[in-house]
Amino acid sequence: MNRARRRLKLALALYLATGIATASTFAQSKSSSRSAHEAVAVRAPQPKAIDYDKLTQEATDLLSKYIQINTTNPPGNELAAAKFLKDKFLADGIPATTWEPVPGRGIVAARLHGIGKHQKALLLLSHMDVVPADPKEWKTPPFSGDVKDGTIWGRGALDDKGPGVVFLMSMLAVKRAGILLDRDILFVATGDEEQGGKDGAGWFVDHQQSVYSDVGYVLNEGGGIRVLPNRRVFYSVAVTEKTPLWLRVTASGPTGHSSQPPAETSVTGLLRGLQRLVEYHPPIHLISPVENYFRAMAELGDGPKQWLDLAASLRDPVFQKQFLSAPDHNALVRDTLTPTVLGASSAINVLPATAYAELDCRLLPGSDSKAVLATINKVLNDKDLKTEIVRNWPPVSSPQKSELMSAIQTLARRANKDAPVVPTLIAGFTDSHYFRQKGIIAYGFVPIELTHPDELKGIHGNDERVSVDELGGGIRRTVELLKILGGR
Ligand SMILES: [Zn+2]
Predict the structure, then answer these.
(1) Contact 292, 422 (CB under 8 A)
(2) Which has more confidence, 237 or 22?
(3) Within 10 A of 300 (CB to CB), how many other CB atoms are there?
(4) Could you state, in order of their start, the residue ranges of all structural domains in the chain?
(5) Is the pLDDT of residue 44 over 70?
(6) How far is the CA of 132 from the centre of ligand 1 (A)?
(7) How far, in Å, from the CA of 155 to the mean position of ligand 1?
(8) H/E element holding 331?
(9) CA distance 400 to 239
(10) Rounded to the nearest whole angstrom, what is the distance from the C-alpha of residue 149 to the centroid of ligand 1?
């Protein structure tokens, strides 16, 4: 057997590998398969047609069972879910592995080998943990995974188990159909996202560099296909997020019996400082994804004409006041500083030596944490108030132009008749920043088209659900996107 044929055999063997995964099959595709690419192109069998109805039924069953694994965070207990997803990949011969960063917590990864023409792999990222759900508030038990009237119900249906199933089933579909992609597709489902991701994506990027060192792109939660009330459709692709600057402010004062209080105590000092802070409004700063997002909404007929040029419109005090009165708009154009936690004495008749407040500050990309902290100290204006940083990381954004963005634009043209692709800022944060900090382009985009506006309210709310049709459509579009990005 000559060298080229050996390489071809190796490439196909890796691609079509079945059975139990080993460390070597989980490893990245080596560039040795590059020269085999031309040969494979002529010899590879025609891909089989994908039966999306059957695939959607299988995805529905899988999501129902996945929801039934209770991964409420805290405590998470994602390991059972990680093993569940791993077994699904292994049954189809896709190498997969799990890790247990701390007891009970889990991460799963699976790799669908391409034939290695391009070096940059695509990582399909989701998280397995969910926020708590109070069964008393729900129409169906939140961990039942009930399927009725064409809808899958349960905590995690959209955030983020449904997207995880869409990604997983898309990889299975590509493998089963024998579609050869020019790059590897890596699936990673993390834990601990809902509590900041330290024991999930944070652990993964710090401890498993070799698994993702060939990754150039990440698709994650944070965006998708939105249908506006006027039925116009747009693709929202999150390219950046606000950064948390979580602070603790501590005041000190004399202790003693509160029947004879001095004029100033730790509590009064804290309250006066906080009062100055809540009366302070950080300046408005319009960044380009935000400006472009509002322009796109106006062009789609889902916003007033002032949104066509938001920068100019915001100079009008009347419009500005009305615009900022919507909390979701306000959050997109300025840093926010919000006291959320207060603590002082444990007894009503004891003056506490210290009183504290925790502030959830969210910074726009471009805001400097040190400068914001200096401003906060200036506004607090009390040398007895000490501020310390509880959590913060540098702001990171992904470029708006890339081959992944081009692929999403092609998908939008083909699947939704020229729906605009709108790069966005999200006010919250996801696991994307862990990958952006490593120089990887990460977009918040899962190609599920949400057709029922109520469904978004289920995310972190009650009666979370996704329709079977939306799940199936998500798989169909993800396969299409993989084929576009896979370049064949
Ligand atoms: Zn989520």
Answers:
(1) yes
(2) 237
(3) 17
(4) 3-240+396-486, 243-282+335-394, 284-334
(5) no
(6) 12
(7) 11
(8) helix 327-333
(9) 7
(10) 25
The pLDDT value recorded for residue 8 is 42
- Does this model's pTM top 0.85? My answer is yes
Nearest to 363 by CA among 447, 433, 414: 433
Cβ within 8 Å of residue 347, ≥6 positions away: none
- With bands split at pLDDT 50, 70 and 90, how would you rate the model's confidence at 3? very low
CA angle 133, 136, 141 (to 5 degrees): 65
* Ligand 1 centroid, distance to 429 Cα (angstroms): 9
pLDDT digits (tens, 9 = 90+) for 59-103: 999 999 999 999 999 999 999 999 999 999 999 999 999 999 999
Q: Which amino acid is at 47?
A: P
Q: 8 CA distance to ligand 1 centroid (A)?
A: 40
CA of 193 from ligand 1 middle (Å) equals 7
- CA–centroid distance, residue 347 to ligand 1 (Å): 38
The length of the chain, given as a count of residues: 488
* C-alpha distances out from residue 342 to 66, 348, 375, Å: 37, 15, 21
Output the CA 309–ligand 1 centroid distance in Å: 32
What would the two tokens of residue 15 be?
């691609």
Distance 125 CA to ligand 1 centre (A): 11
CATH class of domain segment(s) 3-240+396-486: alpha beta
Return all residues near 346 (Cβ < 8 A) that are at least 6 apart: 352
**Which CATH code is given to the segment(s) 243-282+335-394?**
3.30.70.360
The whole-number average pLDDT for the span 316-328 is 97
